[in-house]
């Protein structure tokens, strides 16, 4: 497998978990709620989306549904089924938000440590319910045959092999060019240590991505890596395959979620959330109904987790209760803290670091009977990093983000110089 | 054939409660005095169980030579002591540093979560994920059938021996003896209660509250009387019958946990250092003004709590007859529920909370349709959330 | 030799400096009061002796030995006892346990000392087994005072002992302090009830904005026109 | 109760009425049946340390729920209301120890205060219509004005945690005033503030009083209370010892005894 294929899988994962992490960051980073049950909303989003989009006659499925929303709208035209799927995702997000509303009513008034433990407990209970109630979502057998949006369209071919290669190849190169441009700008802004760190890491990655394949596998590997969007083996003339589409979809959702949260945070609304995080008594004394704000923050964060769940289902093509263990929540906490609590860019960075450690180590050659040891060693490392970061750099790699409310015609631009 | 009934569910619940209480004792110490809601406590239980395994059944651990097997009690003692040393390590290398930085409670929660991740995976790394048993003599269950007949009560004990159910005992009590015994037991209990209670009118502090002591003495008297005076069976045609399944294992677990609870309470209430621990929990600044070395107190808290966690781990592993890297983590939720329910400030509270949780788990499993059995932990949790909704500071609060 | 001698003390909390160049002395068996407006740093001065603040500069000598910047429990074991203004007892513990905690820094509980304290505050003996947190405000103040006396300190630091007490109890409290002082214990007291405090003490200091403003015998300060106008309400 | 009818607000002037308020903590009776009424203007609340003043404030503003008694603000019963509801009804408080939001900037601390901002609602924050911009601009203008007045304008972009003790007091006060209150409860607003600023704050309070705002404040500085209050309430051991004009209170023997110690000079 070419490195590009591995990276496409990894980046898809990172995009999905980043969206999940951004939802957590809204709760934990900006509002100060320790929701140890965040994974429950990931699960609710995944299951509800899957069931809403699943064909009614799905084989080996014995739960409620499927409601086949894409099939319902397929008559409207080629994009109808996509619309149906999007509607399913919205349904998943709403369901996640509603479940968190039900959870929040009794728990949000509790002390922060009690909130953490009850949230964890409720998530565990919800997971048990999904696992044990076969009639609900097929119990431990999970759901396969999941609806994948636009799957029939792929591999996407625009014509002859050459046309495909030229179009998708150029797009690939354009993305690289943009990344390079962005990196150069960051490099200019960075300090001495930052520059060294950037130079070293960019150098190593390029060595691994561009140089090594060229030496190892020759030009075919190198071409695959450079023209990564183009898959020559997909279809008769090559083209854009479905994995790459899922990557684009996931990155698109992440971008949407990111901007949506940024817009929410960089507003008077976000100001109240942060005030609650620091000292709930103050906004209360100033007349803000903090309980409502906490509830909305919880629901919004849960909805984003739900969207991440919907993407997860499409990416894996199968959901089952044991994919949603509480360790997923803890991983997200770790990622958020590594990157920088209350920093959405930090969440993406932290998630990248986390999954790079978690999955990147697959290139370490160990005999297969030691795979458990390798997996355990990774998690030991991650646990240790979490503690070390909290001690030496509690603000995370990037620290808290800056806030700025965009206003036309305003001279004081918030607090961008903090 | 007599069915196990509500009584059996309650007895099983008390045993489950004891297992939870073992963990809750240590967690409440850490929670109350070190002020860490310790999410690593479940995994400290796991580590303790595996530490005893090292000496009890080293052959099961891949990288260890099979150097023979110590009896479980001896291995447990060594494991518990080693766990204490690990507890000191947690405090010295991690929690003391965060305390010195005045870390807030959220940070402490997440630090303990990181520690939990490390501990669980250390077990996975060294031992792997397979189920392992302790090397110990198998203990058979004895079923006690209580048959209430017109003439009184008949007790029949049965055991499964070599695949067959064998009746091992049959005796009974006529009505007059039952009534007399109960009256006698009540009288003894009440007498102890009266003799023990002092200075009415104040919030007098006792090592054991008089009402509990009186009740316990009454129950003990009834059991002793019942064991000593065994008359002829009073017929085997029951009006009402119920069965309780018990073994020495169960009684040992309950006994060990109650002994640990009592020892901890005596230490906290009567020794100078125990007082210092309680004072630190109450008001850490003032304790320092009175000359208490808070660092020493916290160190001891972690040592004792880790030892209690290890004890709970050994009991859990022995009770469930297998050890897995997840065994402690699955106990974490009921343990937290017990501690918050019981109020984090006293060993008795923690144990009382654990018993409430344990009994409600097993009784609900008995009362609910059979496929709800997997919701045992959910039941514990619903009770906790219910209590917190009414009293957000816990059943007995922090005082 | 003075029991406690503070010279040129700068101290505060974290980066925030509260005290600037404060000087204070408490002689053997002397009764010294610190008065001054709110926020003047009176309590901070007292807490600095115990190492409960951030030490910045200057010296604090206890019986000639420099203790500036030392751990609280070390200072306490050297003969300083302190009654904080609030949160000054272990509310979940019994009165008796509180008194035993008072003697924590000693090898064993001095029975004769316990006797003396119980004789001085009879209510404490009567209520030995009661939870301290369930007692009234005045009684709680007595427990706190009793705890501090358990170690037979060279100097007793009192932070607003009359705060929150009823007028008749305030007089009692000051009488108790007089008794303790008469028995030979040096006292350094911060008090808001300035008139009463200055009337009873040997010497007084007035702190303003974290600096020494006035000092002198209590009655002299009490009669000083300027001090009266500025701090004693005319 | 020795309410002097000549200075007690008449029923139609009464803004805040408290009846028989009780609050206990363990064995300590913090408030033992507080009865009082507060009219418009500046009312001072004095009493020795531990008299229950801060507990009283906490009960008034919904941070504590009293066990017994009722609180009526502008004719509405607010006993047991949540803090936010009390603040919205027009009674806002400051904290004795300033509770600045230390990681947020001074400007953000101020911007938080004004009520009913369009962008404070989720819909407003997402849609960002004209109201969003108008509100934010006007809120900023008011915040800047307030900051200027309290001499905090050079610190707008500082995290509030970097302010000095006195500046925190000012921020606290400025924030409270930005909520458009009817009545402001000030918990020792002048402790630790330098004399020139103190003078300014008092001037501002008098200005605001002239505009119809009312103040109830706890202060230790007797002189200040006597010179600036229309009416004084003396709280002692959780009860109202007396109420009256500054002159009356000043000459009340019980007050002098309770607050200043025995009278012998």
Automatic annotation (TrEMBL), chain A:
Keyword Ligase: no
Principal location: membrane
InterPro entries: ABC_transp_permease, LivM-like
Organism of this sequence: Haloarcula salina
Xref: CDD domains: TM_PBP1_LivM_like
Protein's cellular compartments: Cell membrane
Record keywords, A-Z: Cell membrane, Membrane, Transmembrane, Transmembrane helix
One term of GO molecular function: branched-chain amino acid transmembrane transporter activity
Name of the molecule in the record: Branched-chain amino acid ABC transporter permease
Membrane disposition: Multi-pass membrane protein
Domain of life, per lineage: Archaea
Ranges annotated as spanning the membrane: 6-26, 38-62, 82-102, 114-130, 161-184, 196-215, 245-261, 298-318, 330-358, 370-392
Pfam families recorded: BPD_transp_2
GO cellular component assignments: plasma membrane
UniProtKB/TrEMBL annotation, chain B:
Subcellular location per the Swiss-Prot or TrEMBL entry: Cell membrane
Single GO MF descriptor: L-valine transmembrane transporter activity
UniProt record, GO biological process: D-alanine transmembrane transport; L-alanine transport; L-isoleucine import across plasma membrane
Keywords: Amino-acid transport, Cell inner membrane, Cell membrane, Membrane, Transmembrane, Transmembrane helix, Transport
InterPro entries named among the record's database cross-references: ABC_transp_permease (IPR001851), BCAA_transport_permease (IPR052157)
UniProt membrane topology term: Multi-pass membrane protein
Transmembrane region(s): 6-31, 75-93, 105-127, 173-193, 213-232, 244-268, 299-320, 332-361, 373-390
GO terms under cellular component: plasma membrane
Domain of life: Archaea
Pfam families (alphabetical): BPD_transp_2
Family: Belongs to the binding-protein-dependent transport system permease family. LivHM subfamily.
Protein name, per record: Branched-chain amino acid ABC transporter permease
Species this protein is from: Haloarcula salina
Automatic annotation (TrEMBL), chain D:
Residue intervals of the ABC transporter domain: 16-262
CDD domains: ABC_Mj1267_LivG_branched
Highest taxon, organism lineage: Archaea
GO CC aspect terms: plasma membrane
Keyword rRNA processing carried by entry: no
Protein family according to the UniProt entry: Belongs to the ABC transporter superfamily.
Function, in words: Probable component of a branched-chain amino-acid transport system.
Protein name: Probable branched-chain amino acid transport ATP-binding protein LivG
Source organism of this protein record: Haloarcula salina
């Amino acid at each position: 497998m070419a490195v590009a294929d591995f990276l496409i899988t990894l980046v898809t994962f990172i995009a999905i978990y980043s969206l999940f992490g951004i939802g957590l960051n809204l709760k934990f980073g900006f509002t100060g709620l320790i929701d140890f049950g965040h994974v429950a909303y990931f699960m609710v989003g995944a299951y509800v989306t899957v069931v809403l989009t699943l064909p009614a006659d799905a084989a080996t499925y014995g739960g409620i549904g499927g409601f086949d929303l894409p099939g319902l709208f397929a008559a409207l035209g080629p994009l109808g089924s996509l619309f149906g799927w999007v509607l399913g995702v919205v349904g998943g997000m709403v369901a996640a938000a509603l479940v968190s509303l039900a959870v929040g009513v009794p728990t949000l008034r509790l002390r922060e440590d009690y909130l953490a433990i009850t949230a964890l407990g409720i998530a565990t209970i919800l997971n048990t319910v999904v696992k044990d109630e076969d009639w609900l979502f097929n119990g431990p057998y999970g759901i396969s045959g999941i609806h994948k949006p636009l799957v029939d369209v792929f591999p996407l071919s625009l014509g002859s092999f050459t046309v495909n290669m030229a179009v998708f190849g150029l797009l690939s190169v354009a993305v690289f060019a943009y990344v390079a441009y962005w990196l150069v700008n960051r490099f200019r802004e960075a300090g001495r240590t930052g520059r060294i760190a950037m130079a070293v890491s960019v150098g190593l990655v390029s060595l691994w991505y561009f140089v090594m394949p060229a030496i190892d596998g020759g030009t075919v590997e190198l071409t695959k890596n450079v023209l990564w969007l183009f898959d020559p083996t997909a279809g008769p003339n090559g083209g854009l395959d479905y994995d790459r589409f899922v990557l684009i979809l996931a990155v698109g959702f992440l971008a949407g979620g990111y901007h949506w949260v940024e817009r929410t945070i960089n507003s008077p609304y976000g100001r109240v959330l942060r005030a609650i995080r620091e000292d709930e008594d103050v906004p209360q004394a100033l007349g803000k109904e903090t309980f409502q704000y906490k509830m909305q923050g919880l629901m919004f964060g849960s909805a984003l987790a739900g969207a991440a769940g919907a993407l997860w289902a499409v990416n894996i093509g199968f959901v089952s209760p044991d994919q949603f263990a509480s360790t997923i929540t803890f991983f997200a906490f770790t990622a958020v803290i590594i990157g920088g609590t209350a920093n959405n860019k930090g969440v993406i960075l932290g998630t990248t670091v986390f999954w790079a450690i978690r999955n990147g180590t697959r290139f370490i050659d160990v005999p297969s009977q030691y795979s458990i040891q390798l997996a355990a060693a990774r998690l030991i490392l991650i646990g240790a990093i979490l503690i070390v970061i909290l001690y030496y750099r509690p603000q995370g790699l990037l620290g808290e983000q800056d806030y700025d409310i965009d206003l036309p015609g305003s001279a004081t631009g918030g607090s961008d110089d903090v | 054939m007599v069915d196990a009934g509500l009584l059996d569910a309650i007895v099983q619940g008390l045993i489950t409660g004891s297992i939870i209480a073992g963990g809750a004792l240590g967690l409440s110490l850490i929670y109350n005095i070190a002020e860490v809601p310790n999410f690593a406590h479940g995994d400290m239980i796991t580590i303790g169980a595996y530490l005893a395994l090292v000496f009890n059944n080293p052959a099961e651990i891949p990288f260890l030579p099979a150097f023979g097997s110590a009896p479980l009690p001896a291995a447990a003692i060594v494991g518990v002591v080693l766990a204490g040393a690990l507890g000191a390590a947690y405090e010295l290398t991690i929690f003391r540093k965060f305390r010195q930085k005045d870390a807030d409670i959220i940070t402490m929660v997440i630090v303990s979560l990181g520690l939990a991740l490390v501990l669980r995976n250390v077990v996975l790394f060294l031992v792997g994920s397979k189920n392992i048993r302790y090397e110990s003599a198998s203990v058979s269950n004895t079923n006690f059938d209580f048959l209430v007949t017109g003439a009184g009560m008949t007790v029949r004990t049965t055991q499964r021996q070599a695949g067959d159910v064998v009746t091992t005992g049959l005796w009974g009590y006529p009505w007059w003896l039952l009534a007399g015994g109960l009256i006698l037991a009540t009288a003894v209990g009440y007498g102890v209660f009266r003799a023990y209670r002092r200075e009415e009118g104040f919030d007098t502090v006792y090592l054991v509250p008089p009402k509990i002591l009186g009740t316990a003495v009454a129950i003990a008297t009834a059991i002793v009387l019942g064991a000593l005076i065994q008359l002829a069976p009073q017929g085997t045609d029951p009006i009402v019958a119920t069965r309780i399944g018990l073994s020495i294992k169960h009684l040992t677990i309950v006994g060990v946990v109650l002994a640990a609870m009592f020892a901890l309470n005596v230490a906290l209430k009567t020794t100078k250092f125990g007082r210092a621990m309680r004072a630190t929990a109450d008001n850490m600044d003032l304790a320092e003004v009175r000359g208490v070395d808070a660092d020493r107190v916290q160190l001891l808290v972690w040592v004792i709590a880790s030892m209690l966690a290890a004890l709970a781990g050994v009991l859990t592993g022995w009770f469930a007859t297998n050890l897995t890297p997840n065994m402690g983590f699955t106990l974490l939720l009921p343990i937290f529920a017990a501690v918050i329910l019981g109020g984090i400030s006293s060993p008795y509270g923690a144990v009382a909370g654990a018993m409430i949780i344990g009994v409600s788990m097993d009784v609900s499993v008995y009362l609910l349709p059979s496929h709800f059995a997997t919701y045992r932990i959910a039941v514990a949790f619903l009770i906790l959330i219910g209590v917190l909704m009414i009293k957000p500071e816990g059943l007995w609060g922090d005082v | 030799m003075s029991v406690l001698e503070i010279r040129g003390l700068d101290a505060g909390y974290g980066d925030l400096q509260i005290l600037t160049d404060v000087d204070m002395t408490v002689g053997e068996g002397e009764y010294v009061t610190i008065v001054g407006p709110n926020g003047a740093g009176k309590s901070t001065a007292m807490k600095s002796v115990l190492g409960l603040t951030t030490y910045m500069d200057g010296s604090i000598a206890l019986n000639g030995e420099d203790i500036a910047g030392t751990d609280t429990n070390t200072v306490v074991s050297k003969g300083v006892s302190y009654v904080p203004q609030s949160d000054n007892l272990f509310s979940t513990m019994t009165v008796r346990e509180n008194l035993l905690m008072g003697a924590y820094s000693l090898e064993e509980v001095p029975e004769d000392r316990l006797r003396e304290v119980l004789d001085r505050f009879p209510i404490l003996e009567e209520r030995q087994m009661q939870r301290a947190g369930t007692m009234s405000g005045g009684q709680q103040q007595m427990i706190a005072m009793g705890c501090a006396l358990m170690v037979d300190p060279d100097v007793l630091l009192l932070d607003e002992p009359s705060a929150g007490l009823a007028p008749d109890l305030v007089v009692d409290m000051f009488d108790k302090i007089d008794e303790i002082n008469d028995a030979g214990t040096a006292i350094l007291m911060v008090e808001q009830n300035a008139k009463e405090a200055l009337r009873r003490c040997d010497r007084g200091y007035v702190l303003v904005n974290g600096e020494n403003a006035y000092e002198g015998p209590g009655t002299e300060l009490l009669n000083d026109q300027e001090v009266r106008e500025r701090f004693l309400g005319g | 109760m020795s309410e002097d009818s000549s200075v007690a607000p008449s029923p139609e002037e009464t803004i805040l009425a408290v009846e028989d308020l009780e609050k206990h903590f363990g064995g300590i009776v913090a408030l033992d049946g507080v009865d009082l009424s507060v009219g418009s203007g500046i009312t001072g609340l004095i009493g020795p340390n531990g008299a229950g003043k801060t507990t009283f404030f906490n009960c008034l503003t919904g941070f504590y729920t009293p066990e017994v008694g009722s609180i009526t603000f502008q004719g509405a019963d607010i006993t047991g209301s949540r803090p936010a509801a009390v603040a919205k009804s027009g009674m806002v408080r400051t904290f004795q120890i300033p509770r600045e939001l230390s990681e947020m900037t001074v400007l953000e601390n101020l911007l938080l205060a004004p009520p009913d901002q369009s962008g404070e609602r989720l819909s407003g924050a997402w849609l960002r219509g004209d109201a969003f911009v108008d509100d934010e601009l006007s809120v900023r203008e008011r915040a800047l004005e307030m900051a200027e007045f309290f001499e905090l304008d050079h610190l707008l972009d500082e995290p509030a945690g970097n302010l000095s003790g006195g500046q925190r007091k000012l921020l606290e006060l400025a924030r409270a005033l930005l909520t458009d209150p009817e009545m402001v409860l000030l918990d020792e607003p002048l402790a630790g503030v330098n004399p020139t600023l103190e003078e300014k704050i008092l001037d501002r309070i008098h200005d605001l009083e002239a505009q119809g705002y009312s103040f109830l404040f706890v202060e230790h500085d007797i002189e200040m209370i006597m010179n600036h209050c229309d009416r004084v309430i003396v709280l002692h051991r959780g009860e109202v010892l007396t109420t009256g004009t500054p002159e009356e209170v000043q000459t009340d023997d019980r007050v002098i005894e309770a607050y200043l110690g025995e009278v012998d000079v």
